[in-house]
Design brief:
By secondary structure, the protein is α/β, with parallel strands linked by helices. It is 37% helix and 14% strand. It has helices spanning 8-17, 22-40, 48-60, 102-109, 147-154, 171-177, 211-220, 252-267, 284-299, 301-306, 313-319, 327-347, 377-382, 411-425, and strands at 43-46, 71-75, 113-118, 160-165, 180-183, 203-208, 238-241, 271-274, 353-357, 386-393, 399-405. A hairpin with a 5-residue loop joins strand 10 and strand 11. Helix 2 packs antiparallel against helix 3, helix 5 (147-154) runs parallel beside helix 6 and helix 7 (211-220) packs antiparallel against helix 14. It is globular and about 60 Å long. The chain starts with 7 loop residues before the first helix and ends in an 8-residue tail after the last helix.
């Protein structure tokens, strides 16, 4: 195994044992980037000299945490004090913040190597598309808006990245790229210093090569309380199978993948029961979009007033309330989502997790699309934690993720269940190009 192929958890253990240095691991990742970035185009900015200087300092310091010396990439809507933050927007073409976002500052203080900034849809919600390609098929989208974050991990360029999710921007690219992705409970990771869109929805997302990798980040952000992972056995798990009220919008490959995953889990001893959603959930995706678009009315006012000529029409439309949202509509959207959240969390009683699709199917061809957030919007609206587990594939051999969901603040339990479920669903023999 080459050094860049090590997961973050494997590299962390090797560093703790003194058999691997941060400089060796970071250097291997930079070599992989130099080789594959011209094809995948996952990075908005990488400074190899700065990254290696950080890694060498890490090797001279006492070990601060389990992510000490581990290189990490950050979606380019998250501020970094020593790397540009451009938001894929001409307005910020030369923008260099003077401080880190909270999520970056936390990891930097724990000894992480800030490797670079990953490509994103403009402001993570519209406008200019990123140039990033899916590493499994360069003619297909990696998903968005955390396009570069998902693709960089999938291609072996970096073991961990941070993205964001306001609709489906972490779970969907994790599904399309065949990596592990986590959208935590809203507010579990501070969003200070990321480009805001909707305070009711904005969430920092996590990408890794395994559940153990996600757990390293979850531990860093104090989302877990146990020092060591102790996942349950699959046998005896009680899982709700939720096709949602949008099942007819899943592609045949997606529907088949979910049924196959359910069959595998039953064979491994899990008990699966149907979790249906009431009529109250019928329009929850529309309500999520209204909540999100209402956030855009104020989120892009600074750019609208200061840089109107450079601001994409997508964002001008949001400022101008292109959906015609009224106070009555917003109260209804927020109140209905709140009632759905109560219904869902009550339905979780007696269940260890809910299993559903991460995306409608395989990544679509072309770079003109980010894919549909059909099976993400509702969970983002409910503010609950979600994890996408790779392992299933469609007719074209492209990844299709399976999404596990839990109640708010049960992030740690969700990680435990995901680690168990992954032993059944993710049995891939990874062949790196």
């Amino acid at each position: 195994m080459k050094l860049w192929q090590l997961s973050a958890a494997q590299a962390s253990q090797a560093m703790a044992q003194g058999t691997l240095t941060s400089a060796q691991y970071t250097g291997a990742c930079l070599e992989r980037i130099a080789e594959h970035e011209p094809l995948v185009r996952a990075w908005a900015h990488v400074d190899p000299e700065l990254a290696m200087a950080q890694a060498r300092r890490c090797d001279l310091e006492l070990r601060r945490s389990a992510i000490h010396g581990i290189p990490i990439g950050f979606k380019d809507v998250i501020r970094t004090r020593d790397l540009p933050t451009r938001h894929n927007s001409p307005i910020y073409a030369n923008h260099q913040p003077n401080e880190d976002a909270s999520c970056v500052a936390t990891l930097r203080a724990l000894g992480a190597v800030i490797l670079g900034k990953t490509e994103t849809l403009e402001f993570a919600c519209g406008g200019n598309f990123p140039p990033t390609r899916n590493p499994h098929d360069l003619g297909r989208t990696p998903g968005g808006s955390s396009s570069g974050s998902g693709a960089a991990v999938a291609d072996g360029m970096v073991p961990l990245t941070l993205g964001t999710q306001t609709g489906g921007s972490t779970i969907r690219p994790a599904s399309f790229c065949g990596v592990y992705g986590m959208k935590p409970t809203l507010g579990r990771i501070a969003t200070e210093g990321m480009k805001s869109y909707s305070v009711h929805l904005d969430t920092i997302g996590l990408f890794g090569r395994s559940v153990a990798d996600l757990r390293l980040l979850a531990n860093a952000y104090r989302m877990t309380e146990k020092p060591d992972a102790s996942p349950p056995q699959v046998r005896g798990l009680r899982i709700g199978l939720c096709r949602t009220r949008l099942w007819d919008q899943a592609e045949p490959d997606g529907q088949a993948a979910l049924e196959a995953a359910a069959t595998l889990l039953r064979a491994a001893g899990a008990t699966l029961s149907e979790l249906t959603q009431s009529a109250q959930f019928e329009d929850i995706n529309r309500y999520q979009d209204e909540i999100m678009q209402d956030g855009g009315r104020s989120a892009f006012l600074p750019e609208y007033y200061a840089s109107n000529a450079l601001l994409h029409e997508d964002f001008k439309a949001k400022v101008h309330n292109h959906l015609g949202l009224t106070p009555e509509m917003m109260r209804k959207a927020l109140d209905t989502v709140a009632l759905c959240r109560i219904e869902f969390e009550q339905a979780m009683d007696g269940l260890d997790a809910v299993l559903t699709l991460s995306a409608p199917g395989e990544a679509p061809p072309g770079l003109h699309t980010q894919g549909m957030a059909t099976f993400n919007r509702l969970w983002t609206a409910l503010q609950v934690p979600c994890i996408s587990i790779p392992g299933m594939t469609g007719a074209n051999g492209m990844p299709i993720g399976m999404q596990l969901v839990h109640r708010r603040y049960d992030d740690e339990r969700l990680l435990d269940v995901a680690q168990a479920v992954a032993t059944v669903l993710d049995t891939r023999e990874r062949v790196w190009n």
